[in-house]
Design brief:
The chain has a five-stranded parallel beta sheet, with helices on both faces. The protein folds into three domains: 126 residues, Rossmann fold (3-Layer(aba) Sandwich); 135 residues, Serine Threonine Protein Phosphatase 5, Tetratricopeptide repeat, CATH 1.25.40; 168 residues, Orthogonal Bundle (DNA Cyclobutane Dipyrimidine Photolyase, subunit A, domain 3). The chain is mainly alpha-helical and 512 residues long. The chain is built from 22 helices and seven strands. Bound molecules: flavin-adenine dinucleotide, ligand DLZ and iron/sulfur cluster (SF4). Ligand DLZ binds next to helix 1 and helix 2.
Amino acid sequence: MTLLLPVLGDQLSLSLASLRGVNPSDAVVLMVEVVEEATYVRHHVQKIALVLSAMRHHAVALTQAGWRVDYVRLTDSGNTGSFTGEVTRAIARHHATALRCTHPGEWRVLAMMRGWADQCGIPVEILEDDRFVCPLPVFNTWAAGRKQLRMEYFYREMRRRTGLLMAGDQPVGGQWNFDADNRKPASGDLLMPPLRRVPPDAITREVLALVAERFADHPGTLDHFAFPVTAAEAESAMERFIADALPRFGDHQDAMLQGQPVLWHSLLSPALNLGLLDPLALCRRVEAAYHQGHAPLNAVEGFIRQVIGWREYVRGIYWRQMPGYERLNALSATRALPSFYWTANTKMACVRDAVDQTLKHAYAHHIQRLMVTGTFALLAGINPHEVHEWYLAVYADAFEWVELPNTLGMSQFADGGLLASKPYAASGAYIDRMSDYCRGCHYRVAEKTGPRACPFNPLYWDFLVRHRDQLGKNPRLGPVFRTWDRMAPETQAAYRTSAAAVLMALDRGEGV
Ligand code: FAD
Ligand code: DLZ
Ligand code: SF4
């Protein structure tokens, strides 16, 4: 009997469910580099390099742990280019009698796996991916019968479930959430934490050369590649984050500064999503930093909430709502994604900086994704499916289970409010408050209308008025619509004319 154990590019954990309890002498681990996974959306070159390099390092680690690993490289002759093609070839190569898989991170791949039994004629077992804190049945039980699925209540369940920052059945510090302390802007004269870069080793350098050659027409540059590609490197990146940045993570979580891509963020999402870092172990380490007096509660609680709250919650939403979720477009947004999302060629300093660093680093922090590129797309009525494909392509940490609910639900309100209680719409004043972008911008954030007005300003009002039928009854937006109603008709008309000029420029491909 030979058991074939496919391990996908984001299943790089030695304790993966499908490997546990298996005798290595009865099994072959299959890892495949396939062109379909790099091209089903045009992934950023650094993302492809990250996955392939981490896979090659993981194959070494598995071999050292006693596993027989069949590793198919992108360049191997006969490589069919798809998971199904490579699984079929491997079954024949090893005379495999059964397949044992761990639940993948994408509906598309789950559908593929479910087809393998019929296509290949051997039994396929798909085990729950227990690298997450919340098993999917637990999420579904929590969600069942609730009208609104709000993250905050789910998060409290996860605090109780894990015991993180709990004193008995009460939250440490007497509050579940310290976000009110976490909205401070930052200034360039603050001492920044040092950049946590990992220099590429020989395996990564070989992959970088391969990706440069094979995927030259994909977005992004490879020059700044510096992601951890092994569990040991991820652990050391975690320790450096805790030492240097965690204490101020909370204070400046929403801040943005020109030319500063990371600030006090952890940059750990790629390692977490590939499986190089365990989310619960990371949170326990961060909690220990609080108990040791190294980091304040607002920082530690804020960080833990992102990981056991948001990260687990969006995964639950994804699997509960798929496959239909991907096609939702509650606001009927149809405009094409502007070309500057791929080039950074825009006069809007905020969008230019966010896209430019995305192309250079395959990374932008949450507020840049949500309130700069995301809010602009929302206000401009960009087709949410195109927005989704952009986020899935350009970020090193983008896997559909986490990217789709964040983009389609949180950022674009395309699920009509299942995930967010109101759209993340904002005028330029928000970006001005939280960043230094506006100082260096062609546009003037204080101008509300006219050719030099910050485009976010007229688009904000135009968006709300365009969607008044759907949003007018939202209690959180009542005061905003009342402000609009109190405006003089000429002011309202000026907003709408300025917004129309921006939208027309987008439609004509003239850029903004
Ligand atoms: P930190 O700010 O240091 O946060 C710590 C960790 O918390 C992150 O590493 C991440 O694992 C988790 N986290 C924080 N916010 C979220 C969130 N909203 N959802 C899930 N996990 C969260 N995150 C991804 O991992 N992959 C994606 O493809 C992705 N796409 C996004 C698309 C949009 C439109 C938006 C608004 C957010 C998206 N996020 C995504 C969430 C968040 O922006 C990133 O997790 C975060 O920026 C990663 O950087 P970091 O590791 O420095 O995070
Ligand atoms: C993203 C990605 C890329 C670029 N390449 C591969 C690959 O060659 N082999 C592989 O096993 N996985 C790759 N991945 C990750 C998969 O796309 C990911 O496992 C699925 O989308 C499920 O989340
Ligand atoms: Fe962005 Fe408007 Fe500020 Fe320019 S003025 S940086 S477009 S918010």
